[in-house]
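Lecture notes, unit on protein representations.

Consider one protein chain, 281 amino acids long.
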Amino acid sequence: MSDQAGNTNQSADAAFEETVSSLTGFLRSETRRAGRERLVLGLSGGIDSALAAYLAARAIGAEKLHCVLLPYRSSSEASIRDALAVVEDLGAHQERFDISPLVDAFVETAGEVDRIRLGNVMARARMTLLFDRSEEHRGLVLGTSNKTELLLGYGTLHGDLASSINPLGDLYKAEIRALAAKLGVPEPILRKKPSADLWPGQSDEEELGFTYDEVDRLLALLVHERATRQAALDRGYAPELVDRVTRRIVAHRFKFRIPIIARVRGREDDFDFPPPADWRV
């Protein structure tokens, strides 16, 4: 191995350790700040929730991580199998809760819904159960939405986008894959197609109309480099892709902001304001 290659590997290893240290430190400090000791996670069998589980186990210990499997009757058996593999590898607590009766009761009451609306109901039913379990176990609900999904608005408001704390929200999908591989997430999860498993054969990339790899690079260009549309076109991106992605970013910003509040006071109150130094937090 050349010195240059060795230095590159060392730099990558250092970046990995720094990222893991930052994310696990975040989970520990925010859990304690909230006066809780446990984390509650909806484990789907996908790579995002698997990575969240491995980070949480490192941060607070697997014995304080409560994983909940929340299948619907049409959920893939492979997803359940992969979720159980994560639980077994980590030694975390787990329970399985079939959401079919909850979702079916909604459909019976509200009337027939298409599969997109049904998927939204499923996502919100799952989050209802996770927040219930978080109260039971005095824990915080762990978020699993990554930066790619958040920027594209690819998720259900008050469903999978909801959480108490989210360690993955500033990581693109490609970074999720790389980090998951380094942390030892089981190989079948690393290899599988990204899917919310909302209906048989559902694929995130087919639904979006582009691959995560190509959109990650474009998002980094548009969001982090603040590139213009023309700059993206000059880099070789198709106009249709650039326009489709930018439209999604603009149209779905409401999904990851607190509701817009009408102001009646003179100054702007911010729910994310830094507390005074003498506050005991």
